[in-house]
Design goal:
The chain is an alpha/beta fold. Helices cover 45% and strands 20% of the residues. The chain is built from 8 helices and 8 strands. It starts with 8 loop residues before the first strand and ends with a helix.
């Protein structure tokens, strides 16, 4: 039978808090009920999510997740990030809720993640991107592996260990890869609450010499890290 639709149903501790978060992302609340159980629907164009409230629910223990496939992950990320900055006065990158910038993660497609106030993950992926095994090597491969642990799995400590080991092992890696690794270390350090390490990693990244084209290519990543470290 054609035209069936499936919508994820995600738990939350406070329905109004979650609705407010999704409104900051540009969603509209199209339905809200209190009884017999708290339930709401939020929609942003063709993206529709159903939320339900649970007494005593712990977002840290949530296994809720939804895959979101879009034609332009970068445009959606920028829209989400701008909305969160307006609503929160900063870009939430640590704890719950948070948003993580787009990256290529080893073994999966390029994309980014959002963790909502209920601890549910929105895993946003690029439509048409390939999941074929990466051809990167050396420190570039290490960064992709670290992103798989830190961004897709949420294991920030393991991601940091991978980067630290990779930087020691591939000390002669291209400067652009070393900059990317240090910028990601700075971001991870913010997530684990180590402000001194975040500042040191950012300083190391800024000290490395790059060709003008490389600096232009990394400008957005650098600006992101600077923002997070300043707020952290």
């Amino acid at each position: 039978m054609a035209n069936e639709l499936t919508y994820p149903l995600l738990p939350c501790r406070d329905l109004d808090e979650s609705i407010g978060f999704y409104e900051a992302l540009g969603f509209r609340c199209t339905y809200r009920q209190v009884r017999p159980n708290p339930h709401a629907v939020v929609a942003r164009e063709d993206l529709h999510l159903h939320l339900f409230g649970m007494d005593g629910f712990d977002p840290e223990q949530s296994y809720g997740s939804a895959l979101v496939v879009v034609p332009d992950v970068d445009a959606l990320y920028r829209a989400f990030a701008d909305g969160l900055r307006t609503a929160y006065g900063r870009l939430p990158s640590a704890g719950i809720p948070r948003i993580l910038r787009p990256r290529k993660r080893h073994g999966t497609v390029r994309g980014f993640s959002v963790v909502d106030p209920g601890g549910n993950w929105l895993r946003v992926s690029q439509l048409g991107d390939s999941e074929e095994r990466s051809t990167t090597t050396g420190l570039a491969r290490v960064i992709e592996n670290a992103a798989r642990q830190g961004d897709a799995k949420g294991d920030h400590d393991q991601a940091m260990r991978l980067l630290d080991n990779g930087l020691r092992r591939f000390g002669d890696a291209p400067a652009a890869d070393r900059v990317r690794a240090q910028l990601y270390r700075a971001e991870l350090a913010v997530r684990i609450g180590d402000r001194a390490l975040a500042a040191a990693a950012l300083a190391e990244a800024r000290s490395l010499e790059l060709a003008p084209a490389e600096r232009d290519a990394l400008a957005e990543e650098l600006a992101h890290a600077i923002e997070l470290v300043a707020e952290g």
